[in-house]
Design goal:
By secondary structure, this protein is an all-alpha fold. The protein has one domain. Helices cover 71% and strands 0% of the residues. It is built from four helices and no strands. α1 packs antiparallel against α3 and α1 crosses α4. The protein starts with a helix and ends with a helix.
């Protein structure tokens, strides 16, 4: 399975929210060091999702534009 840059950014944003809830809900995850591993995964997704073609543009690079672009590309 391959991820696009937009999909990687969306997953990175979701990971940012979810990692805190997951580790707080279960103490055994904290012992495994899951938070640090999820943080590393989030960092990899953010690095991969960085689209250098969008540098210098003032639009089409925020999260709202990302969701709009993703929804248009994945219509059924």
């Amino acid at each position: 399975m391959r991820l696009t840059k937009d999909e990687a950014r969306i997953l990175g944003e979701a990971m940012d929210e979810y990692k805190y809830k997951l580790v707080a809900s279960n103490g055994s995850y904290k012992e495994l060091g899951l938070f640090n591993k999820l943080h590393d995964l989030q960092h990899k997704l953010e690095i991969f999702g960085d689209d250098k073609r969008r540098y210098g543009r003032t639009s089409q690079d925020d999260l709202h534009d990302l969701f709009v672009r993703f929804a248009k590309q994945n219509k059924l």
